[in-house]
Amino acid sequence: MPSREVLDALKGALGCDQVLTDREDLLCYAYDATADMPRHLPEVVVTPRSTEEVVQVVQVANRFKVPIYTRGSGTNLSGGTVPTRGGIVLSTLLMDKILEIDHQNLTATVQPGVIIQDLNDAVACYGLIYPPDPGTVTTATMGGSVAECSGGLRGLKYGVTKHYVMGLEVVLADGQVLRAGGKTVKNVTAYDLVKLFTGSEGTLGIFTEITVKLVPAPEARRSMLAVFKDLSSAARTINGIIAAKVIPATLEIMDNMTIRTVENYARVGLPMDAAAVLLIEVDGIAEVVAREAEAVARVCRENGGELTEARSDADRDRLWAARRAALPALAQLRPTTVLEDATVPRSRVPDMLLALQEIAAKYNLRIGTFGHAGDGNLHPTILADERDREEMQRVHQAVDEIFRVALELGGTLSGEHGIGEAKKKYLEWELGPAGMDVLRRIKQALDPDRLLNPGKVVD
Ligand SMILES: Cc1cc2nc3c(=O)[nH]c(=O)nc-3n(C[C@H](O)[C@H](O)[C@H](O)COP(=O)(O)OP(=O)(O)OC[C@H]3O[C@@H](n4cnc5c(N)ncnc54)[C@H](O)[C@@H]3O)c2cc1C
Question: Candidates 70, 76, 163, 250: which one to mutate for ligand 1, based on the most atoms within 8 Å of Cβ?
Fold first, then answer.
């Protein structure tokens, strides 16, 4: 339990209803969606409703030197919200208001607890969309996705969250409120603070307001499924499509193990004997979409792919439901699902797919691979049982090797899931000592007492 003084100060600031200390409540905040991650109970959970209340929580944390773990929906996959050093979990779920939709400037301003899909539903009547769409689009919060710089299925054409964040209100570790950026398309005033905080994983400040860019909804789209007899033909097709100067909104891959598992799980009509499938969607102006769909079909045929196209919205929904079912389907095969997001330049996807097969064989593990192949962001998913210590040792060795290979291929540790607790041991491999030094100095400058999400990203 936290000291009586801390609790009294929090209750004085927020009221008793917004300060949770029952063990049953705390248990729900001891973990997030990350597998193979030790659980830690927070000492208290607070649920502020406004910037002012967040400031008051930060002031209490400062006075008593208690850490704060900011949490949206807890769907991150890097151990980013586990309160590893006890202290306060600050849940943003009551800060769930869409503050403004500005259809002239094509922006929306939201509180951090707004669910991504709710923003999309709200802007749909203006003919606009907010493109970042992680698999958890119906559960993840705007705050969590900005803090992770989430990607998603449309990343290839539309980019990731950082390409849409225009302005932030941030409560800093000392309780000051910073406003950076805004609604202007251009803003090069001093250092780019919006970019610095985007992707900072709750370690540099707490977002209390977020202004994002919206874009016109595409007037047409066509979704296709291409079936391949071997993995390398599928991989060649990915590069072939881009070489044909087509940038699909979505270009996803599933390997045979994922296909079989999804089909058994969701019965969506995937071909169980295919070595790989590509799920492709082109969108935009109708005439261009027609031309692009034709080019995609040609490249698929040239590489031995068998193409079918969704003929109705129901068909399309079935296709994307299949892709979204990939992780839940794989997760039901074994108790522990270790999902990684090592990312390589697109041209090296075939090498990475091959390496994943070799790593699976070398460590005698089952690895299902799916992911955003068009942007080189694969999700090798290792199926294991965390109670089997010998198997978990092999899993850890395999994960080390996956990251080593990804970096050797010119890639990066994370395309969209962040570093959190889970991947910080690899950071120096990518950034080197100078990069680590810069990260530590940024953290030291903004949070010298290590109050914000301590132990995540950098120690
Ligand atoms: C089945 C599944 C599929 C997924 N698919 C994708 C995908 O396709 N693409 C992708 O990118 N990710 C994906 N994810 C990961 C995850 O859903 C995203 O990272 C998501 O955006 C996290 O949002 P959240 O609200 O759950 O954040 P949380 O998990 O609660 O928090 C994530 C991080 O943000 C920090 N944070 C939260 N709110 C704030 C705030 N207001 N201010 C400052 N820091 C804050 C936290 O401290 C933590 O470090 C998937 C996860 C699952 C389980």
Answer: 76
Identify the three-state secondary structure at position 8: helix
Q: The domain spanning residue 287 has which CATH number?
A: 3.30.70.3450
Handedness of CA 291, 293, 298, 299 (dihedral sign): positive
* Structural domain for 144, as ranges: 98-216
Would you write out the chain's pLDDT as a tens digit for each of its 459 residues? Answer: 568 899 999 999 999 999 999 999 999 999 999 998 999 999 999 999 999 999 999 999 999 999 999 999 999 999 999 999 999 999 999 999 999 999 999 999 999 999 999 999 999 999 999 999 998 999 999 999 999 999 999 999 999 999 999 999 999 999 999 999 999 999 999 999 999 999 999 999 999 999 999 999 999 999 999 999 999 899 999 999 999 999 999 999 999 999 999 999 888 889 999 999 999 999 999 999 999 999 999 999 999 999 999 999 999 988 888 888 898 999 999 999 999 998 999 999 999 999 999 999 999 999 999 999 999 999 999 999 999 999 999 999 999 999 999 999 999 999 999 999 999 999 999 999 999 999 999 999 999 999 999 999 998
- CA-to-CA distance for 112 and 171, rounded, in angstroms? 12
**Residue 112 alpha carbon, nearest atom of ligand 1:** 41
Shared-domain flag, residues 396 and 322: no
Indicate the top mutation candidate among 148, 149, 207 to test ligand 1's pocket, ranked by most ligand atoms within 8 A of CB: 148
Token pair of 277 as six digits: 């499938």
Q: Is 218 in the pocket of ligand 1 (CB under 6 A)?
A: no
Burial class from Cβ neighbours inside 10 Å (0-12, 13-18, 19+) for residue 149 reads buried
Q: Could you tell me if the CB of 152 is within 6 A of ligand 1?
A: yes
CATH number of domain containing 372: 3.30.70.2740
Interatomic CA distance for residues 99 and 115, integer angstroms:
13
Q: Relative to the CA of 416, which ligand 1 atom is closest?
A: 11
Hey, which residues does 281 pair with through a beta bridge?
A: 223, 250
8 Å CB contact between 162 and 149 = yes
Question: For a pocket test of ligand 1, which of 45, 49, 54, 136 has the largest count of ligand atoms closer than 8 A to its C-beta?
Answer: 136
pTM value surpassing 0.90: yes
